[in-house]
C-alpha cells in the first residue's frame, strides 16, 4: 500500500493553491450568501512565526474552512503590523535598513503561512502597514481627527523609556516599566505631544461593553477597570481669614456663626476638593493638599520652612512614581497653619500638605475623613487629628451615636446609613451621595463630577519607523490656524512619505529631525518656510483600523469603500491574544467610533465575537530563547507535516487553555493521519464507483437492509458529524472533535474485514469515507484535498458541502440506565432506546445484581427519571 508522505503531498497542493489566486476569494458583497468575516490578529513581521501564531491562525483557519463548507461567504484575510521599534533595533545591530529588513521578514513569514495551509485571500486582502498605500490613510484619519478636535497638541508630562528612546502611551506602561523592557522603569518627561481625544468616547467605550456578550468577560472586565469611570463631587471650602478670626478671638474648629455654606469672599482663596464620598463630609476633620497644589506654592513663597518641606515631598513623590510604589510610601505631612470652612457644617478644618495626595488626580486636594478612609485614618492617627464616625451599618438604625464598636476605619457604603450628619442623619449612604451632591450644586459650592482613569492617547513617537504625522509648523505662524502655526498637510499632498536612507542611531530625539530634506518644508497656506513634524505615530494607530482595509485593500481613493465595510462589518469572529485586551482592543474600538462619526461606517463596535486563545508552553513553561525551549513551526512541519502540526495544535488542548507542546503528541497525530490516508486510499475506488453511479450527491444510507456492522458504523459516523458541527458552533472544543474522529477511524479500521467481505455495503463504505474526509478538511487541508481528489472529485473540497447529521441514523438503538437501590448504584442495565417506563422498570427488577441488593427487603417505591435513572427505595 502507498505510504502517507506529507512531504510530497503538501508542497504539491501548496503550489496548486498558489496558482489559483481566487481560491479563497470571498464573493462580492452583492451576492446572496450570508457573510462570515473571520480575522486573526495580524502579526508583527519579526522574521519567523512562532508556534503560538500557528495555534492562533489554525483556530481561525479551521473555522473559516468550516464556514465555507457550511455555505457562508467567508472573508479570511491576513496582513502585517509592519511598523515598530524592532526594525530600528535590527538597523542598529546589523545595519540593515528597516524597510528592507521588514519586507524580507514579511516574505519569509508568508512562505511559512502558506506552508501551514492557511486559507487567506492573499491577493485580495493583504495589507502591510509600512507601505505608503496603507499609512497614507493613517495620515488621512489624523487630519479628520484634527478637524473634529479629536487630535490635539499639548505639552505634558509623558512616559519615557530610555531604551526605546521614545514616549510611551499610558497603556504601554506596565507596573511602572516599559511594555517592551520589563525591567526598565518609565521616566516622566515634559514634551510637546500629539494626543487623540479617546476620553471623549470614554462613556461609550465603557457602556458598550455591556452590549458585547460575544467578548470574554475577562477582557470586558479589564477594559472596564482601565476606563475606570467614577462618580464624585467637587466641594469648595473657603479658606478662613485667619487674621479676621484672630481679631474676634475665634478659635478654629468651632463653628463660625453664619459661615455655613459660605463661599470665599472676594480676594480670599478657596480650596476645591474631589471626593467620591461626599456623604462622609460631616466626618471631615482636615483638608489635605498635594505638595504641588497652587495654594501651597503660593503660601510657600512667604514661608521658608513650608517651602523646604514641600520641596522634599515633591522629590519623594517623583521618585515613588518612578519605582511604581506610590501606594506604599510612608504617609507624612505638614500643617500649613491655615484653616478652611466646611460648607456643609460651618466647621473650621486645619489645612495640611500631605505626600499621599497627587497633584494630577481630581483637584489635587481632599477632605480627610479618617473614620472611613484607610489612608486618612493612618494619617490622622499619626498626627493626632480628630476621627469622627459618620457612617454606620444599616442595622444600627442610623442612631446619632458614635459609640459603635465597629473597628475603624469603617469602609462599607452599600447598606450603610449616615449618623452624626445633621439633617442627613439616617439617610442611606448611596442616596446621600446623590442628594448631597445635588444640594452642593444647588447651593453653589459644589458640583457632581464623572472622572475616568482613561487618559487621552498620546500618539507621538520620537522614532523613525512609523507613520509621519502630517502637519508642518509654519514659521510665519498664521493667525486662524489653531494652534498658531500648526498647518495640516492638505489631503492632496498625502502621503507624507517616510524617507529612505535615514541614519538610525542610538541618539535621543526623532531620527527624522536629522534629515534636512524632510524637515524643511513649505507652508501649504502661505508658501513660506515651515518645519515638518518629525515625530511619527504610535504603531497602535496602524492596528486600530487595519481590518477595515481588508475589505477593500487596493482602494487608492479612500481608506476603504463604506459599502464594502458596511457589508462585512462587524467582524463575526476575531481571534487573538489576551495581551491585547487593553491596548489594541480599546484603541480599535475608539477608531471604529470615530469612523462611524465621520460617516464612513455604520457599526458601533469592530467585532461581534472575540476569542482569546491560550498560550503554547513547553515543559510547563512559557517558551523563551533563554530557556532554550522554543518550538519551531518549521521543524515540526519538516518532521511531521503541516497537517499533523495543525491538527495537533487543535487536538492537544481546548483552544482557550494553555497547551503544553509535546513532540510525541504530534507524532501520534501524524500516525493517525497516516491511518486515515491508508484506509481512504484503499477504499477510494469504492467511493468513486458509488458516486459515479449515483451522481455527486449521495444520500445517507438508510438502515433498511443494513447489516448490524454497517448500522453500527453509520451510527458512529452520524454521531461524529453531529458532535463536530456542534463543537464548531458552540464551545470550540476541537480537542474532543478530533478525538471523536479518531474513535470513528478506529471503528472503521476494525471493520475492514466486514468491508472487504461485502458484509458492509459499498454505499455505506462510500458514505463513510466521503464524510470522514469532509470532517477532517478544516483541520488537515492538504491530506483531505488529496483524498478528495483520489475519490474522483474534480471540484475543490473547500466548497464541498459540510455533511449533515441524520438524527435517526445517529440515534443509539440501546441506551444504558443506572439502577440504584436506596440511592446506591446496583448495576447499569441496557434497554432499547425507545423502551417505555414499564419495560425499563421490569428490566431493572429482573437484573441479577439488582436482585442481590434487594435480597429480602420490600420495595416501597420505584422512581424513574426518564432515560436517566431508576431508583428503588426499599425497607
Ligand atoms: C473623602 C473620602 C471619604 C474619600 C471616604 C474616600 C473615602 P478614587 O475612587 O480612586 O477616584 N482623593 C481624591 N483626590 C485625590 C488625590 N489627588 N490624591 C490622593 N487621593 C485623592 O478615589 C477618590 C478618593 O480618593 C476621594 O474620595 C478622595 O478621598 C481621594 F470615606 O474623599 B475621598
Ligand atoms: Zn505659513
Explained architecture:
- This protein is an alpha+beta fold.
- Among the domains are: 137-197 and 456-537, no CATH class; 229-452, Isoleucyl-tRNA Synthetase, domain 2 (Alpha-Beta Complex); 663-810, Isoleucyl-tRNA Synthetase, Domain 1 (Orthogonal Bundle), CATH 1.10.730.10; 814-874, Ubiquitin-like (UB roll).
- It is built from 28 helices and 34 strands.
- Strands 10, 11, 12, 13, 14, 15 and 18 form a seven-stranded mixed β-sheet that branches. The chain has a four-stranded parallel β-sheet with strand order 2-1-26-27, covered by helices on one side.
- Ligand ANZ binds next to strand 11 and strand 15.
- Zinc ion binds next to loops.
What features would you highlight for this structure?
binds ligand ANZ; four-stranded parallel β-sheet; Isoleucyl-tRNA Synthetase, domain 2; Isoleucyl-tRNA Synthetase, Domain 1; 875 residues; alpha+beta; globular; 28 helices; binds zinc ion; seven-stranded mixed β-sheet
List the helices and strands and how they pair.
Elements: H1 6-18, E1 35-40, H2 51-69, E2 73-75, E3 79-80, H3 85-94, H4 98-116, H5 122-125, E4 127-128, H6 132-147, E5 151-161, E6 166-168, E7 173-174, E8 177-178, E9 187-196, H7 202-208, H8 217-227, E10 229-239, H9 242-248, E11 270-275, E12 286-289, H10 294-300, H11 304-323, E13 333-341, E14 348-354, E15 365-368, H12 374-383, E16 391-393, E17 416-418, H13 429-443, E18 446-452, E19 457-458, E20 460-461, E21 471-474, E22 486-488, H14 516-519, E23 520-522, E24 529-532, E25 536-537, H15 546-549, H16 562-568, E26 573-576, H17 583-597, E27 610-612, E28 616-618, E29 621-622, H18 633-640, H19 642-651, E30 659-660, H20 663-694, H21 708-729, H22 734-750, H23 752-757, H24 762-776, H25 781-790, H26 807-810, E31 814-821, E32 824-832, H27 837-846, H28 848-854, E33 859-865, E34 869-874
Parallel strand pairs: 1-2, 1-26, 3-4, 12-14, 26-27, 28-30, 31-34
Antiparallel strand pairs: 5-6, 5-9, 7-8, 9-19, 10-11, 10-13, 10-18, 12-15, 13-14, 16-17, 20-25, 21-22, 21-24, 23-24, 28-29, 31-32, 33-34
Helix pairs in contact: 1-25, 2-19, 3-4, 10-11, 18-19, 19-20, 20-24, 21-22, 21-24, 22-24, 24-25
Bound molecules: ligand ANZ and zinc ion (ZN).
Amino acid at each position: 500500500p502507498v505510504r502517507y508522505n506529507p512531504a510530497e503531498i503538501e508542497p504539491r497542493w501548496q503550489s496548486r493553491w498558489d496558482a489559483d489566486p481566487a481560491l479563497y476569494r470571498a464573493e462580492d458583497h452583492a451576492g446572496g450568501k450570508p457573510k462570515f468575516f473571520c480575522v486573526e490578529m495580524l502579526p508583527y513581521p519579526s522574521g519567523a512565526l512562532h508556534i503560538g501564531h500557528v495555534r492562533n491562525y489554525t483556530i481561525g483557519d479551521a473555522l473559516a474552512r468550516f464556514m465555507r463548507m457550511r455555505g457562508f461567504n467567508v472573508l479570511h484575510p491576513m496582513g502585517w503590523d509592519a511598523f515598530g521599534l524592532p526594525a530600528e533595533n535590527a538597523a542598529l545591530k546589523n545595519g540593515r535598513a528597516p524597510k528592507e529588513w521588514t519586507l524580507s521578514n514579511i516574505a519569509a513569514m508568508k512562505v511559512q503561512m502558506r506552508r501551514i495551509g492557511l486559507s487567506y485571500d492573499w491577493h485580495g486582502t493583504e495589507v502591510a502597514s509600512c507601505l505608503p498605500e496603507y499609512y497614507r490613510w493613517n495620515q488621512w484619519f489624523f487630519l479628520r481627527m484634527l478637524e473634529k478636535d479629536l487630535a490635539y497638541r499639548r505639552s505634558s508630562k509623558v512616559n519615557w523609556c530610555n531604551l526605546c528612546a521614545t514616549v510611551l502611551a499610558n497603556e504601554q506602561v506596565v507596573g511602572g516599566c516599559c511594555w517592551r523592557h520589563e525591567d526598565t522603569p518609565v521616566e516622566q518627561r515634559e514634551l510637546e505631544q500629539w494626543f487623540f481625544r479617546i476620553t471623549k468616547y470614554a462613556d461609550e467605550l465603557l457602556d458598550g461593553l455591556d452590549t458585547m456578550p460575544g467578548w470574554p468577560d475577562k477582557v470586558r472586565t479589564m477594559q472596564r477597570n482601565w476606563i475606570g469611570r467614577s462618580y464624585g463631587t467637587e466641594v469648595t471650602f473657603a479658606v478662613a481669614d485667619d487674621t479676621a478670626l484672630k481679631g474676634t478671638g475665634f478659635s478654629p474648629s468651632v463653628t463660625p456663626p453664619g459661615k455655613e455654606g459660605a463661599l470665599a469672599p472676594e480676594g480670599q482663596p478657596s480650596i476645591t476638593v474631589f471626593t467620591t464620598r461626599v456623604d462622609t463630609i460631616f466626618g471631615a476633620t482636615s483638608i489635605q493638599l498635594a505638595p504641588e497644589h497652587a495654594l501651597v506654592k503660593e503660601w510657600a513663597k512667604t514661608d521658608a520652612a513650608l517651602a523646604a518641606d514641600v520641596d522634599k515631598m515633591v522629590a519623594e513623590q517623583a521618585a515613588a512614581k518612578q519605582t511604581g510604589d506610590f501606594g506604599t510610601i510612608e504617609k507624612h505631612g505638614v500643617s500649613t497653619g491655615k484653616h478652611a470652612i466646611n460648607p456643609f457644617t460651618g466647621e473650621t478644618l486645619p489645612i495640611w500638605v500631605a505626600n499621599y495626595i497627587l497633584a494630577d488626580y481630581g483637584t489635587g486636594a481632599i477632605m480627610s475623613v479618617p473614620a472611613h478612609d484607610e489612608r486618612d485614618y493612618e494619617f490622622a492617627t499619626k498626627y493626632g487629628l480628630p476621627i469622627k464616625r459618620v457612617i454606620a451599618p444599616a442595622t444600627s438604625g442610623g442612631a446619632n451615636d458614635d459609640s459603635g464598636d465597629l473597628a475603624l476605619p469603617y469602609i462599607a457604603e452599600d447598606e450603610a446609613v449616615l449618623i452624626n450628619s445633621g439633617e442627613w442623619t439616617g439617610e442611606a449612604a448611596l442616596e446621600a451621595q446623590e442628594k448631597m451632591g445635588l444640594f452642593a450644586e444647588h447651593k453653589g459650592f459644589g458640583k457632581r463630577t464623572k472622572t475616568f482613569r482613561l487618559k487621552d492617547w498620546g500618539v507621538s513617537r520620537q522614532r523613525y519607523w512609523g507613520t509621519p504625522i502630517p502637519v508642518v509648523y509654519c514659521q510665519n505662524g498664521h493667525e486662524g490656524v489653531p494652534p498658531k502655526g500648526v498647518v495640516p498637510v492638505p489631503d492632496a499632498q498625502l502621503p507624507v512619505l517616510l524617507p529612505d536612507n535615514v541614519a538610525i542611531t542610538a541618539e535621543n530625539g526623532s531620527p527624522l529631525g536629522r534629515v534636512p530634506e524632510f524637515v524643511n518644508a513649505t507652508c501649504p497656506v502661505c508658501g513660506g518656510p515651515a518645519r515638518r513634524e518629525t515625530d511619527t505615530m504610535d504603531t497602535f494607530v496602524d492596528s486600530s483600523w487595519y481590518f477595515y482595509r481588508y475589505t477593500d485593500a487596493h482602494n487608492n481613493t479612500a481608506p476603504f469603500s463604506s459599502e464594502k465595510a458596511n457589508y462585512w462589518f462587524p467582524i463575526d469572529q476575531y481571534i487573538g491574544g489576551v495581551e491585547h485586551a487593553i491596548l489594541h482592543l480599546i484603541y480599535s474600538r475608539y477608531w471604529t467610533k470615530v469612523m462611524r462619526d465621520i460617516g464612513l461606517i455604520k457599526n458601533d463596535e469592530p467585532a461581534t465575537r472575540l476569542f482569546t486563545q491560550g498560550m503554547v508552553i513547553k515543559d510547563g513553561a512559557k517558551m523563551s530563547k533563554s530557556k532554550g525551549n522554543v518550538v519551531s513551526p518549521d521543524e515540526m512541519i519538516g518532521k511531521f507535516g503541516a497537517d499533523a502540526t495543525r491538527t495537533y495544535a487543535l487536538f492537544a488542548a481546548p483552544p482557550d487553555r494553555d497547551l503544553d507542546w509535546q513532540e510525541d503528541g504530534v507524532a501520534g497525530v501524524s500516525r493517525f493521519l497516516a491511518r486515515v490516508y491508508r484506509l481512504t486510499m484503499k477504499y477510494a475506488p469504492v467511493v468513486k464507483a458509488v458516486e459515479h453511479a449515483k451522481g455527486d450527491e449521495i444520500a445517507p444510507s438508510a438502515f433498511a437492509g443494513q447489516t448490524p456492522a454497517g448500522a453500527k458504523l453509520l451510527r458512529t459516523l452520524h454521531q461524529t458529524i453531529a458532535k463536530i458541527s456542534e463543537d464548531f458552533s458552540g464551545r470550540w472544543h476541537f480537542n474532543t472533535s478530533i478525538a471523536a474522529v479518531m474513535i470513528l477511524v478506529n471503528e472503521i479500521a476494525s471493520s475492514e474485514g466486514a468491508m472487504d467481505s461485502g458484509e458492509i455495503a459499498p454505499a455505506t463504505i462510500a458514505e463513510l469515507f466521503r464524510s470522514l474526509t469532509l470532517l477532517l478538511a478544516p483541520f488537515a487541508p492538504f491530506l483531505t484535498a488529496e483524498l478528495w481528489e483520489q475519490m474522483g472529485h474534480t471540484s475543490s473540497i473547500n466548497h464541498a458541502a459540510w455533511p449533515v447529521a441524520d438524527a435517526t441514523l445517529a440515534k443509539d438503538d440501546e441506551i444504558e440506565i443506572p439502577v440504584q437501590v436506596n440511592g446506591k448504584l446496583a448495576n447499569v442495565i441496557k434497554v432499547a432506546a425507545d423502551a417505555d417506563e414499564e419495560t425499563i422498570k421490569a428490566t431493572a427488577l429482573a437484573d441479577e445484581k439488582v436482585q442481590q441488593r434487594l435480597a429480602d427487603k420490600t420495595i416501597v417505591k420505584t422512581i424513574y427519571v426518564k432515560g436517566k435513572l431508576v431508583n428503588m427505595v426499599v425497607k
